[in-house]
Amino acid sequence: MTASSDKPEPDKPGPDTPEPENKDAAETAAKPADESGDAKAADKAADKPADAAAETPADETPADKKPADAASDDKASDDKAGDKKAADEKAAEAKADAKPSLDKKSGDDAKASAGKRTAADTPPPGKGKGTAKTAAAAMPEAIKAIPVRHYGRWVSAVLVLGLLALLVNAFATANVNYSAIPDYLFNSTVVEGLGKTVLISVLAMVLGLVLGILLAVMRLSKNPVTSSVSWAYIWFFRGTPVYVQLLLWFNLALIFPYINLGFIYRDEMSDFMTPFMAALLGLGLNEAAYMSEIVRAGIQSVDEGQTEASHALGMNQGKTLRRIVLPQAMRVIVPPTGNEFINMLKTSSLAASAAQYLELLRSTSDIGQTTGATVEMLFLAATWYLILTSVFSVGQYYLERHYARGSLRSLPLTPWQKVKKNLATFSHRSPEGMSA
């Protein structure tokens, strides 16, 4: 009796096995078998022993069959392990494919819920303009800024304009021959007096500037004698009116008949103290007292480290003052110096009456006395003084701008540059305005 007779053979489909009713049913039945790797592996393991048992010869003994059965069992286990690994890989791929679909479904659900919320929040159609009202309510209201009314400004402007109109009307209706002003504007006597005014102002300012620098250095000196003398000079000339000083210089011949400077100069005081010399000394020495304080303030504005650094480089005191301190102090010295020069132009008119110096005011006054147009000639003198101060103010502006280069990153625009910029802006805007 052989081993094949004892083991029952598995059922195999034969010719009498009924086929599925249709193809779809067969595919449906076969699909689960393909998706399950474990069932497939079990079927293969079951079929292989049956096939091996069917192919075993009848005359083989159980002892001869054992090695073959063991080999077939090992092969079946290897095939089962491989099929299980393939099934695990298929399951992982199916899980990865299913994740995007779940994410997509969750996204669709979120969109659907958002659509439901929007629909719930939106008022139902057919009930007026609910949507427009809701949108208008959601928009913030525009803030209407109401400007503050400054009634005081309007009142003050009206008062100033009223007073200005009264002043213009008063001079317009006054008994003044305004045509005489342009007639004598370039008269030879007036032009000569104008030249003398400029000359005495420039020379007196130069004298005051030089003496002012010297007095400032003396005032800052550690020598008590020079410091005291400088202080006394400033105290006297700043404490007395410049008109009184001019009178003193012009009448100095009454107490000093001669001027004796040794072998340098010796002459009568009346010949030496001319109206020009009296005006120059009176204006220049008085200006020196004010310029000394301006220069002293400019020198003290320079940091002491600059002086210490120059001394460390081997410079002496004079060279340090001339090349280090004063160039930096000019930024502080120039603005008040320009104001002092403009004031000097007007103060020079005092020399006309105090020292009998024929400057602008004296020239116009003489013409007014001879022609009878006294007030008109005073207006003429005021016109020339305004022209002089305007011209020198422009020069002062450019001088200040020059010395401000070391303290400003960008220099301000000059008046002419501002005019050109405004004209360029207007020319660019005008074509656009015409086209609009």
TrEMBL record:
Membrane-crossing residue ranges in chain numbering: 154-178, 198-221, 242-265, 378-399
Q: Is DNA-binding among this UniProt entry's keywords?
A: no
What is the name of the protein in this document? Polar amino acid transport system permease protein
**Organism of this sequence:** Streptomyces syringium
Biased composition regions of type Low complexity, renumbered to the chain: 51-60
Database matches in InterPro entries? AA_ABC_transptr_permease_3TM, ArtM/GltK/GlnP/TcyL/YhdX-like, MetI-like, MetI-like_sf
Q: Where on the tree of life does the source sit, at the highest rank?
A: Bacteria
Q: What keywords would UniProt list here?
A: Amino-acid transport, Cell membrane, Membrane, Transmembrane, Transmembrane helix, Transport
* UniProt topology in membrane: Multi-pass membrane protein
Q: Where in the cell is it found?
A: Cell membrane
Q: Which family does it belong to?
A: Belongs to the binding-protein-dependent transport system permease family.
- Leader sequence range is none
Is-annotated flag, keyword Transport? yes
Regions of biased composition (Basic and acidic residues) lie at: 1-50, 62-111
| Boundaries of every ABC transmembrane type-1 domain copy | 194-396
Q: Where is this region: Disordered?
A: 1-134
